[in-house]
Here is the input.
Amino acid sequence: MSQYVPHTQAETQAMLTELGLANVEALFSDVPQSVRLASPVALPEGLSQMETLQAMEALAERNAPYRLTLRGAGCYDHVIPPLVKQIAGKEEFVTAYTPYQAEMSQGILQSIFEYQTIVCELTGMDASNAGVYDGATAAAESAVMCRDRKRTVTLVSACVHPDTLAVMRTYGYGTGDALRVVPQWDGRTDLDALLPMLGEDVACLYIQQPNFYGILEDVPALFAAAKARGVKCILGANPMTFALLPSGREVGADIVCGDVQPFGLPMAFGGPSAGYMAATAAMQRRLPGRIVGQTEDAQGRRAFVLTLQAREQHIRREKASSNICSNQAHCALTASVYVTYLGLRGLRAVAGQCLSKAHAFAEMLCGIDGVSLRYPGEFFHEFVTDLPVAPEKVEAALEKERVLSGLPIEGGMLWCVTEKASLAQLQHVAQLVKEACAK
Amino acid sequence: MSETVWLSFEKSVPGRYSAVIPEPDPSGYTLPDRLLRKQPPTLPELSEIDVDRHYTALAHRAYGVNCGFYPLGSCTMKYNPAVNEAAAALPGFAGAHPLAPAHAVQGCRAVMDELAQDLCEITGMDAFTLQPAAGAHGELTGMLCVKMYHDSRGEANQRTRMLVPDSAHGTNPASAAMAGFTVVNVPSRADGCVDLDALETLLGDDVAGMMMTNPNTLGLFEKDILKISRMVHSSGGLMYYDGANLNAILGCARPGDMGFDVTHLNLHKTFSTPHGGGGPGSGPVGVKALLAPFLPGVASLGDQDRPQMKAFHGNFAVMVKALAYLKALGSNNLRSVAEHAVLNANYLLNRLKAIGYAPAKDVPCMHEFVLTLESIREQYGVSALDVAKSLIDYGIHPPTMYFPMIVHEALMFEPTETETRETLDHAAETMAQILKDLQANPEAMHSAPHSAVIGRPDEVKAARNPVLRWTPNP
Amino acid sequence: MEIKNDRLYAESHEWVLFENETTATVGLSDFAQSELGDLVFVNLPQVGDTVTVGETFADVESVKAVSDIYSPVTGTVAAINEALLDAPQTINEDAYGAWLVKVENITAKGALMDAAAYRALTEK
Here is the structure.
């Protein structure tokens, strides 16, 4: 038998005999003959465990092994401390099911309660759910939270991640609600263009901070304008920035959402990660997905339990505001472990390193002829440069030294610097860029 | 083991710190004050040893597939192979940026292409998207494909209804509603299968399609599936397959051969990727060629005017685990999964019947079965919930409770093929003991479990006065 | 099981207390709250909304279920019992005092029965 089916021939036979059946085919008598497969599914033959791992290693080796990653655009190469991996790798955390049986899942439930608290503290909001698929779907679900009978239109800044916009549009296609894009000006959401768009049918405004170009938006001004017209404010934020930048509460957000990937999750070709969603007390019952609450048992012992479940699909069915089940629990747990381990001081260290190294690198690049910052204004750890040559040329030059350059966008390059880069490495890369730009 | 595990926040000691990342040079760039946060967040301050012990304590209060039997119906809690985890952790995969140039991530592309190809063969579909992050997400994707298909033929405003069996999982109607459809429930017959006569009356040119799972949520194969598909297709609708129960027919039959046009799969069920305490999973969607134009793309890679379900490519690390699983199984071992899943379920059902439990339908099952404890409730006042909670005292994870909704006092068991005969025998003996317990002392059952770290939590209090976060003392 | 004589009942267990021909308050019967169990949340319509006979206009949540509440009349919502939003258990404690909505401009009524007929229904 295969390695994942433990039955011996003898056991299978004995079990069939107990059931009064001649063979395993008899178990499938309800499946119409015309539908039963006559021959095995066309896959390669099964491999031993050793060969399986070798085959997977061979596939992994077909990826270019970069020494340094200077590309962000929604997926960031941060240090993942060994303790985080070790804790996240505990089998009970990896293989448990959703904690519907509270008495035997207090560990999972407590970890989610701690995660929810962390998200509330970072965002300044009153309540958080247990997580959703990612930052892009969190944005789409946040927009749904804001709609009511009169206000159904979502405004999205042109400066958000293109995938976020595409996902919001897709979800809007399902519900039939309109989405309008607020134009950008000089790499930021255009406040003047926003004002006339804040009509009586508008439910919410979604702003990404930092935005896709890495630039810091003037969120207080944008949100004040929206609030004045009765429009709800959704802040889509890289959670790492809350170590330095104002919380959602401080800028007037009704909902704060984003992706926890920067907190201890590998890039892994873009997934899995988890989206976080946090809201004011007034909006907390509209949060989709799972939520853990604190209560007691009959002996007065503190107990954690999945709560407010009557919002969810398994109870509301077609009347649920969202169909979501998964809270990407293991990713949320990993992020929670990372933040708990680093603490505020550690997060400030990471964020501070990103900020200062990115600015140092930007200065190095701007010292090159023909290279300049495309947009004015403050940035965190990403920025766009204009280049005197095609960005693909710079990309190729850096790749020869196993460095993943910034992302080519609109003829320029969106760079990202994290704490992993050393100043020496950045200086070397700047030199490579200079050589690539010399014509 | 009953003492409180304090929250990380409660264990915090001001000044505790592990220097993991060096602090930045003070001469480095800083943002102007006006742009900085005014009110700092309160986060735990713990030493490394305390962090390690805290999560160890939490892990001790969790129950994984590594701990024991986990017969949750409809969840397919099969063993999660260690080799899959090792594959996903390979630095070549873990360190891949989703927007790296194509030639630099050939390994990732190959994983996705090979998995998609395998899934096409397994399901009899023509094309797959691996982007959806979970089963429900895949359902939404599939529903949107159906909507886009009808839209492309100018019939989206006409075909607004989606048929869903009354035995369906809650995500089915929720997903259909999220895609803008009006959900129409299709009743089941007494034998638990779709009522064809009722279906006939519900079909019309306002129907976009029908969602089904096969075997259904009672663990019974819908024998009339070919007829149902013909009926729905004749009225211009499409057939959607919820792949949650694929484990029952893996390698033995394919939804594509049963008339289904679109399907979602759950890599975290059928394909052995771990449940993670509630995710991440992965919900690939397969389609027949007629729906392939409507599969999602990736905007940040330049796909214009394609729908998109989440950022980037999907839950790639989960795909790696599923591919490793399929490589290990191969064509020669695939059927054995379904065969032993169905064997194990029937074996356990038979033993439980012999002990005195009543199946919802007294017929052979497929990979899962449903018991009804209605007569136990009538006779002893003991509910399905009470019996489920008692299993916790015996170290076994309860089965799925109160689903499907069409069965009263339901308990749904799905052993999966990775359980040994001894485990099934032990589970049956435990259930026999519980039956004796509830006959002898029904009152005690209402407060089970008695040996877990907490008793039953007060869920009413939790919902009426939600406390959803820890709050620092003022 | 208390069944007050001063009001009418719908088959779906809502009570209606008419102030006059076109104004009434609506709530859930004692039988209904006992069947529903401990209520944890109430979703009420907004003032100004239209309610229609036989269609759902509100729902109540217990821990494990959501139950739709059907309007026994057609009209406009004049007032909602906001206190229920913070204390849904009032419906369990005092079903006849815990009104859900007040409806005005009533133009139609559903099939309503008196206390005696309702008692017979609940005893079946």
In short: The mean pLDDT of chain A is 95.
